[in-house]
Write a structure and sequence with these properties.
Blueprint lengths: L13 H7 L2 H8 L25 H25 L4 H12 L5 H6 L18 H7 L1 H9 L9 H10 L11 H21 L9 H21 L18 E10 L5 E9 L5 E11 L2 H9 L1 H12 L1 E6 L6
Parallel strand pairs: 1-4
Antiparallel strand pairs: 1-2, 2-3
The chain binds zinc ion.
The site of zinc ion (ZN) has 6 residues, from loops.
Length: about 325
């Protein structure tokens, strides 16, 4: 009984309490009014309401506030992850559960089944896609360091903010986790939407390459101050009878892989040839792409009649 801890003079029995409770609790009790009989019997009360009366609305407000406070740091962490903006946007949408999964499609009455089309293992919501689908489980079995949680929100926010993982540099886990989640989603979309999809590189390998590129890009960004100049530019057609080709390419400086794409248009802007190619090496794939495409011959014919104007941001192609 609490009353047993009060002396005859109406004060806390500190001699008895000192043996039972830590000093921090005793200090707290010293600032708490004593239980006095004249104040009536103790009754349970709802501490989050001024009148101590329980209301569902106040319970909801408390829960929402607690949840927001708990995850507040991870919301801001998403935007500071050292990954491309598209990955950050993906994680933001994931945290809001706004992806158009089968569960969401059924809810919007644009699909009749919410079952996962890859594993048929259950309703396909974002939790299933990133955690429980067999395709996701295969990955997480290989990637060590995942924070485990019962609840999807706890799992997501816990991993985004997690910093200390064995064999992973401090602060890097959130980046790794985000990249793997993003690649899991991208692969699923390709498998479902692209009938000709062939997985040439596993999500694990692709993720590890991508993470290396992110780290290299960010270390370069922080070591060399870069000036950014922006200007708007519009396509301008070639002179009459000529063909204009716009070509650009990208090269991975880590392994030399390259991809190139281009379009060829006449003076009216009509596109009669477009071509893309990936997986080549350095700039030689540019010539292969243009010469090897079916429409490449037509480009050659037109060029022989008039002339060709080239525009590219990748000088090695020329
Ligand atoms: Zn599945």
């Amino acid at each position: 009984m609490v009353a047993d801890m009060v002396t005859a003079t109406g004060e806390w029995d500190s001699d008895r309490l000192r043996d039972l409770l830590p000093s921090t609790v005793l200090e707290y009790m010293a600032a708490t009014p004593l239980p006095l009989a004249r104040l009536g019997d103790d009754v349970p009360g709802w501490r989050w309401d001024e009148k101590r009366q329980f209301q569902v609305s106040s319970a909801y407000a408390v829960l929402m506030e607690v949840g927001e406070r708990r995850h507040a740091s991870s919301w801001s962490k998403i935007w500071s992850l050292q990954v491309p903006q598209r990955v950050r946007v993906f994680m933001w949408i994931t945290a809001l559960r706004r992806h158009l999964t089968n569960v969401e499609r059924v809810r919007r009455h644009i699909a009749s089944s919410d079952v996962c089309s890859l594993c048929h293992g259950g309703p396909k919501d974002i939790d299933h896609v990133l955690r429980f689908c067999t395709k996701a489980c295969e990955l997480w079995r290989c990637v060590l360091g995942q924070e485990v949680a019962n609840n999807f929100d706890e799992w997501l926010h816990g991993n985004i903010t997690r910093s200390l993982v064995a064999n992973v540099e401090r602060g890097e886990w959130g980046m790794r986790f985000s990249v793997f989640c993003w690649l899991l989603w991208k692969r699923r979309c390709s498998m479902v939407l692209d009938g000709d999809f062939v997985e040439r590189e596993s999500v694990l390998d692709r993720g590890n390459h991508f993470i290396l590129e992110c780290k290299a890009a960010y270390s370069q960004l922080h070591s060399v101050p870069m000036a950014v100049h922006r200007r708007e530019q519009w396509w301008e057609g070639p002179q009459r009878g000529w063909v204009k080709g716009n070509v650009d390419a990208a090269v991975n400086v880590n392994d030399g892989r390259a991809a190139v794409g281009g379009v060829f248009r006449d003076e009216s802007g009509e596109i009669f040839c477009r071509s893309t190619s990936g997986g080549g090496r350095t700039c030689c794939c540019g010539a292969t792409t243009v010469g090897g495409s079916k429409d490449g011959r037509r480009v050659g014919e037109l060029v022989s009649l008039g002339g060709m104007e080239f525009s590219t941001g990748f000088l090695q192609l020329l």
